[in-house]
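[Q] Does anyone have a clean structure-token version of this?
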Amino acid sequence: MNPTTKLISIIAFGAFIFILAISWENLNAHEDQDFIELGIVSFHTSLDQGIKEAKNTSKPVFLYFRSQTCYWCLEFEEESLSDKRITEILTNNFILVSIDTFKQKNISSNLNVRTTPYIIFFTRNGEEISRIPGYIPKEEFLIKLNEI
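[A] Here you go.
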């Protein structure tokens, strides 16, 4: 194989990989969804919609920051967001909002969220109640949830 053919092959292969990566990202992008299922609960994906519902229902907001590539987010979702005791408290007492830190960078930045998972509790009027930065085991999270 001569150098020109080799160069063309490398460029073609690189272009193929690039197009494949873009297609994969678009396939997995769910920015237009209003809700996302995490564990066994459904979350708003729009902070504005969540706050609007919180005001209408007089419930506080549970704001959960995550990313699809975050190991500890997946662990939290599998462990805590699939536990009946926890999900019952969350769905009965809070408006649930999930923010993808890669797709919704402005919200993460504005609230000074630099890591995932990250949880912020707000009153229905948008006043911050508490923050939980990083992963928290199920039993500890249940205690914290009952305190709030």
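[Q] Thanks! Anything notable?
[A] The CA atoms of residues 64 and 107 lie 11 Å apart.
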